[in-house]
Amino acid sequence: MEEVGIQKIKLHSILPQSFYARDPRVVARALLGKLLVRRDTRVRTGRIVETEAYLENDPAAHSFRGPTPRNRVMFGPAGHAYVYFTYGMHYCMNVSCQKEGEPGAVLLRALEPMEGIAAMAKARGVKLSTSSTQRELRALTSGPARLAQALGITRERDNGKDLTDPWAELFLAEDDFEAGRVRVTVRIGISKAVDKKLRYVLERNPFVSR
DNA sequence: GAGGAGATCGTCT
DNA sequence: GACGATCTCCTCT
User: Which of these, A23, A95, A101, A116, is most buried using a 10 Å CB contact count?
Assistant: First the structure.
C-alpha cells in the first residue's frame, strides 16, 4: 500500500486491465474524473476532464488501415499507452482498449492539474506567476499535446507501456471524485468521420480544451 | 475573443 | 510527396 505524493494515491487505486477491456466509448466516458499520474523524480498528477474515443472500423482512427509499426499498440492488449508523434513536434497519448486484435483507443485531450504543477510548468517551458491564474493552469494541460508535454510523455519513453503495472511510472488511478454531468460532442482536429459524437467532456469544467 | 499562418518531421502512399 | 487525433504567435475587431 505504497503512497505517492500529496494526493496519497494508493497502489490499489490503479485502474485494472478490466477497466480498459471494453468498448472505447465506454472507457472514454468512464475515464472522466480519473487521475493520470507520472511518477518519476517528482509526482505529477492531473484529473482527466476530456477524452475522445477511436473505434474499430473508424475512418478517423490510426488503426483504420490495419496494423503498422506506428499503431501496433492499438491492436494489442488493453490498458497500454499508445503515444504517437504528430505535426513534426507534438506527442499525444491514448490508452488501448478492448481485446488483443480488436483495435480501439481513447485519446486523453485535457487534464485539470492537481499536483506537481511546478514540474508541469517546467516541462512546458513556461513561468507561472506567484499567484498562478486559472488561465495559466489551463494552458499547462488543456490539449492532448500540452498534457503530454506537461507530464513528459513521449513515444520513445512511454509508447507500449503497461498502464496497469503497479510499478509503472505512468498510470491511471481513481480516487473518490464523482464526475458530474458529461457532454458528448464531435471530435476535434480530424477530417474523417467528423460527424460522429465521440468526444466526452466534463460539463462546466474550465480545463477542457478550446 | 476569433481567426489564420507557420512550424516541422514521421508515416504511409 | 502529402498530410497530420496540434500549438503558438500574430493580427484584427
Answer: A95
DSSP, residue by residue, A153-182:
--HHHHTT-BTT-TT-SEEEE--S-----E
Structural domain contains residue A1: no
- Give the CATH number for residue A159: 3.10.300.10
The reply to whether the CB atom of residue A167 sits less than 7 A from any atom in nucleic acid chain B is no
- Whether A207 is in a domain gets the answer no
The per-residue pLDDT for range A175-194, each reduced to its tens digit, is: 999 999 999 999 999 999 99
Distance A173 CA to B13 C1' (A): 40
**CA to C1' distance (Å), from A90 to B2:** 24
- Count up the domains in chain A and report the number: 1
Nucleotides of C under 7 A from a protein CB: 3-8
Q: Which residue is nearest to nucleotide C4 (CA to C1')?
A: A87
Q: What is the pTM of this model?
A: 0.95
pLDDT at A210: 83
Domain enclosing residue A165, as ranges: 6-202
Q: From the Cβ of A137, is strand C under 7 Å away?
A: no
Cα–Cα–Cα angle for A198, A82, A169, rounded to 5 degrees: 120
Q: Decide: A95 and A105 in contact? Cβ < 8 Å.
A: yes
Is the CB of A88 less than 7 A from some atom of nucleic acid strand B?
yes
